[in-house]
From TrEMBL:
Protein name: Inner membrane protein YdcO
Residue ranges of coiled coil: none
Organism: Pseudocitrobacter corydidari
Transmembrane segments: 44-63, 70-88, 94-114, 119-138, 168-185, 205-225, 246-270, 290-311, 318-340, 360-382
NCBIfam families: benE
Encoding gene per record: ydcO
Length: 388
């Protein structure tokens, strides 16, 4: 009976989607939470809350629309938070989450989502994202210097799988790296645990400087690099669903659970494509079942959020850095391609990219914001000169 409702390939598609989601970004979320000063128990609570939020939202939207709508946390947003939350408190981090998700809900309610994205040239948004992600790529390959066997084995596994089964390349790197770390004795086995960890409520504190330097770029990155591709993936797969109701729902859910560490709930793109493919189900009208299965797996992963966090804490830093770098490599290369694609926008995009990647801080405001400001000014000046 169950196999008729959810055939094994459909069930497997849902499982792989969740596995890829965690494999590609759990390490980055762990880094973001640690940057804000969260301890192991609090990070475990974040992972529990995020898993439950993804499960609830995926199931609700999929069953509501009868379409394979997966949700995801914003991986590029988490990457931005790794640097942006350095020196911030957990209370200030929650204030950023609430601020950014309130802006997302506002976009959905007013229908400004599409129009707001048009205010910033796509090349500059892509350049800003590439500047944010650059440090992850550099960290990944610099880890080869002191952890050649561990990081090298992960790179080889990723490369081979990328050639023959690209969908599972990050998963292969995760598995091989975990085995290499275990066999070399680099896994701190005494930190492993399998206890259920309840999310901890953290009251928000709103710092104007952080809201401007981190909150605004985080909002823009989440909308431009997670929600926009998510809707594009849906449409490319033949599912034409109005954007505003989904933006309001996901933004509202993230806003509600922000004090528990749910920094974002977005429309998924990469993991959603797994459940939207013919491999999930030969009939497009039945592929929502794969997304529903993914929702259930997300709920299960949420219940064991403490175990996932304990596993991350037990693994060497080089493992986390290499996994994060490989997982973000496609996003980084795609962002650079989009940033430099238009010859007449290339100079402004490079200004945005370099300023963002520099780590510049002025008046307490971080480099992502200044990258957009200086890149936007360059774009405006150069466009005006070329029209003259």
């Amino acid at each position: 009976m169950f196999t008729r409702f959810c055939p094994f390939p459909t069930l497997l598609a849902g499982f792989v989607a969740v596995l890829v989601g965690y494999a590609s970004s759990a390490a980055i979320i762990w880094q973001a939470a640690a940057a804000a000063g969260a301890n192991a128990s609090q990070i475990a609570g974040w992972m529990t809350a995020l898993g439950l939020a993804m499960g609830i939202s995926t199931l609700a939207l999929t069953l509501w629309k009868k379409a394979p709508i997966l949700t995801a946390w914003s991986t590029p947003g988490a990457a931005l938070l790794v640097g942006g939350l350095q020196g911030a408190t957990l209370n200030e981090a929650v204030g950023i989450f609430i601020f950014a998700n309130a802006l997302i809900v506002l976009c959905g309610v007013t229908g400004l989502f599409a129009r707001l994205m048009k205010l910033i040239p796509h090349s500059l948004a892509a350049a800003m994202l590439a500047g944010i992600l650059l440090r992850f790529g550099l960290q990944a390959f610099s880890s080869l210097q002191n952890h050649l066997v561990l990081s090298g084995s992960m790179l080889v596994a990723w490369l081979l799988c990328k050639a023959f089964a690209p969908r599972y390349a990050v998963v292969a790197a995760l598995v091989v790296g975990s085995l290499a770390a275990w066999m070399s004795g680099e896994v701190q086995r005494n930190t492993l645990s399998f206890a259920l960890v309840a999310p901890e409520f953290i009251s928000p504190h709103f710092s104007p400087a952080l809201l401007l330097s981190v909150g605004v770029p985080f909002f823009l990155v989440t909308m431009a690099s997670q929600n926009a591709p998510g809707f594009a993936t849906l449409q490319a797969s033949g599912y034409h669903i109005p954007a505003s109701p989904l933006i309001v729902f996901t933004g509202g859910l993230a806003l509600l659970f922000a004090p528990f560490g749910v920094y974002s709930v977005c429309i998924a793109a990469i993991t959603a494509a797994i459940c939207q493919s013919p491999d999930a189900h030969p009939q497009a009208a039945q592929r929502w079942r794969a997304a529903a299965a993914a929702g259930v797996f997300y709920l299960l992963a949420g219940l064991f959020g403490g175990s996932i966090t304990a596993l991350m804490a037990s693994l060497p830093t080089a493992w986390i850095e290499m996994l994060a770098g490989l997982a973000l490599l496609g996003t980084l290369s795609g962002s650079l391609y989009q940033a430099l694609q238009q010859a007449n926008e290339r100079d402004a995009a490079m200004v945005t990219f370099l300023v963002t990647a520099s780590g510049l801080t002025l008046a307490g405001v971080g480099s992502a914001f200044w990258g957009l400001i200086l890149g936007g000014a360059s774009y405006a000046v150069l466009s005006q000169v070329r029209r003259a």
